[in-house]
Design a protein that fits this description.
alpha/beta, FAD/NAD(P)-binding domain, 26 strands, 24% helix
């Protein structure tokens, strides 16, 4: 019976190993993670966990005994140092682990500020791992000054937590507007107003020039020349897929570990899934950084490792929680040329529908779960209602199905 090794003890890796057992695989399974913790949820880290509303144990995807019960060898705190595709061996320190099939679920890592501008000073944090959040938790005291570098979803979620805990929050975004890379101006406007109403100072079109301090950050110089007093800094300027170990093993890498529709890489018996994987979608190669993708893709690839030959057809959707607003996103808005706003009589509820020509591409739904679900079903069914009908509140959205 085939021995299967999974590198990466995150959402994708955990989903894959349990799916392998559910599908009846009885051979040896080893799940290797470089963190000291069993696989855990990442989205609550910068929200409920940082707020203190969720315990560490509730973060874990499965209780640790579940791995033993399913005969899954869990090797934690163990960075992989090499993969040898010729001998089918993974090196973890001094140990070598043989495999018949290898799944790379290595995830992604946050982009760091350069040391030359103060990125290595004390009090400068990334928002990615459980250890990151534990390290910064004591900083969140009422009245302190926090600078958040980056106005994407991670930065804004952290801003919401900090503001809710009574900190003085400044967000700097180098682009012309927050969320510029991922959302339309209408969605940016919604969240800018939301944060400003909670006292957050949002500065757009302004970058960070440098951080200063002796051993710990005390000041931040912005690109407009202003200098801010800061007690600590949170960096949310994007992530990069973890591809180094794949690249050194000869696996093709380009904005992620390249795979086909089945999850196979360019090297036999090596597969990839989750944040690290680049795969075909709508005529292009994409990566999806989301929990639903990590689960769905990993489970499909697990089946394919066992011979299923099922193509992975992505159904992109995402979410973000900020204050009392739940943003739900269906589809991908790449290539949109028109945005239709559908307001609601519910306070704070609105949805933005992205069109490319006559084709519905995506929906941003703010406190609008019904609109999200209908939009998602339309997109997944390949249906595109007339834009003017979507924007007309007299139209019953269900009738567009």
């Amino acid at each position: 019976m085939a021995e299967i090794v999974v590198i990466g003890a995150g959402q994708a890796g955990s989903s894959a190993v349990f799916k392998l057992r559910a599908l009846g695989h009885t051979g040896r399974i080893t799940l290797i993670g470089d963190e000291a913790f069993p696989p855990y949820q990442r989205p609550p880290l910068s929200k409920a966990y940082l707020l203190g509303d969720m315990t560490r144990e509730r973060l874990f995807l499965m209780p640790e005994p579940s791995y033993q019960e399913h005969d899954i060898r869990l090797k934690l705190g163990a960075p992989v140092t090499a993969i040898n595709p010729d001998t089918k061996v993974v090196s973890v320190g001094d140990e070598t682990i043989k495999y018949d099939e290898l799944l790379l679920a290595t995830g992604s890592s946050p982009i760091q500020l350069p040391a030359a501008i103060g990125g290595e000073l004390g009090g400068v944090y990334s928002i990615r791992t459980l250890a990151d959040i534990d390290a910064m938790a004591s900083e969140f005291s009422e009245g302190r000054n926090v600078l958040i570098v980056g106005g994407g979803y991670i930065g804004l979620e952290a801003a919401a937590v900090a503001s809710s805990k009574g900190l003085k929050v400044t967000v700097v975004e180098m682009a012309d507007r927050i969320l510029q890379r991922v959302a339309a101006p209408e969605t940016s406007d919604y969240f800018r107003t939301l944060h400003q109403n909670h006292g957050v100072d949002i500065r757009e079109g302004i970058g960070l020039s440098r951080l200063s301090g002796t051993e710990r950050v005390t000041h931040a110089e912005l690109s407009d020349g202003q200098v801010l007093d800061v007690d600590f800094v949170l960096v949310g300027i994007g992530i990069r897929p973890n591809t180094d170990i794949a690249g050194t093993a000869g696996v093709a890498v380009q904005n992620g570990i390249e795979t086909n529709t089945f999850g196979q890489t360019t090297v036999p018996n090596i597969w990839a899934a989750g944040d690290c994987a680049s795969f075909p979608f709508a005529g292009q190669m994409i990566r999806l950084e989301s929990v639903p993708n990590a689960i769905d893709q990993a489970e499909i690839v697990a089946g394919n490792i066992l011979g299923a030959k099922t193509e992975y057809i992505a159904k992109p959707w995402f979410w973000s929680d900020q204050y009392d607003v739940k943003l739900q996103i269906a589809g991908l808005n790449t290539g949109y040329d028109n945005v239709v706003a559908r307001p609601s009589d519910r306070p704070g509820s609105v949805s933005h529908w992205y069109y490319g020509g006559d084709t519905l591409l995506a929906v941003d739904a703010m406190n609008a779960p019904r609109e999200f679900m209908i939009g998602r079903r339309l997109i997944e069914a390949g249906k595109s209602p007339i834009a003017t009908a979507v924007g007309d509140l007299s139209t019953d959205l269900k009738s567009l199905m």
